[in-house]
Amino acid sequence: MDYALILTVLTLITGLLWVLERFWIRRRFGETESGPAHWLASVASLFPILLLVLVFRSFLFEPFKIPSGSMIPTLQIGDFIVVNKFSYGLRLPVLNRKIISTGEPERGDVMVFRFPKDERVNYIKRVVGLPGDSITYRNKVLFINGEPVEQEPLGHWEGEGLNRNPPGRTPIERLEYLGEEPHSILIFPDQPDRGVRTWTVPEGHYFVLGDNRDQSLDSRAWNFVPEENLVGRATWIWMHWDCGRGCVVWERIGDKIQ
């Protein structure tokens, strides 16, 4: 469901009703407490609220829910996150056209974007390749411009609740030193690689991977994210809901997304 389109349409409709009610209905019928004019005024009164929500959601921050485990352990199923919409430029709602440039994705960012194969769907992955980079994934190690990205083993990872390990399988957690801050990734040693490939990132595009490297549908499968598909940078977790762990998981609330 395209919430941006729905919100924009509702804002336009109530805005037109607000103008109609204020500059025509009131002058013709005066203040009324019943009838069509009163109903029109009630609907029109929603316009300032919808406008505020539209501006906040389109240009400042937007909430998202994590539906899959492709970013475990950084983000888990049941996480509700806040996405900074002005990190990569201010864009018109629905049209997604950049009107003000405020920054570009950096290597290591956790980024939300419209899936290139179906732009009605939002995806979240980690930026690993910038325009012009040569990206290789071999033996579960990321290579950027021919240099391996440092990894540090942390031991076995045990998931809980919605994020429990697949039956009979235990992934290995590694610390990857990609951007300014290291982040954790998961590797399944028993799962073979998809084959060694090298990609050269075109101008105006980005290469992204899930932190759950063997359980993620990402740029290794469908190539690059165009700049015009960017939505924003994931910043922090404001709620985690998993009734397999007592419903509200308090220790994840407020965590900054690295």
Automatic annotation (TrEMBL):
InterPro entries: LexA/Signal_pep-like_sf (IPR036286), Pept_S26A_signal_pept_1 (IPR000223), Pept_S26A_signal_pept_1_CS (IPR019758), Pept_S26A_signal_pept_1_Lys-AS (IPR019757), Pept_S26A_signal_pept_1_Ser-AS (IPR019756), Peptidase_S26 (IPR019533). The keyword Transmembrane helix applies. It is found in: Membrane. It catalyses: Cleavage of hydrophobic, N-terminal signal or leader sequences from secreted and periplasmic proteins. GO terms for biological process: signal peptide processing. One of its GO terms (cellular component) is membrane. Its EC number is 3.4.21.89. It is a multi-pass membrane protein. One of its GO terms (molecular function) is signal peptidase activity. The active site is at residues 70, 125. The chain crosses the membrane at residues 6-25, 37-60. Keywords: Hydrolase, Membrane, Protease, Transmembrane, Transmembrane helix. Residues 42-238 form the Peptidase S26 domain. This is Signal peptidase I. It comes from Wenzhouxiangella limi. The lineage of its organism: Bacteria, Pseudomonadati, Pseudomonadota, Gammaproteobacteria, Chromatiales. The gene is lepB.
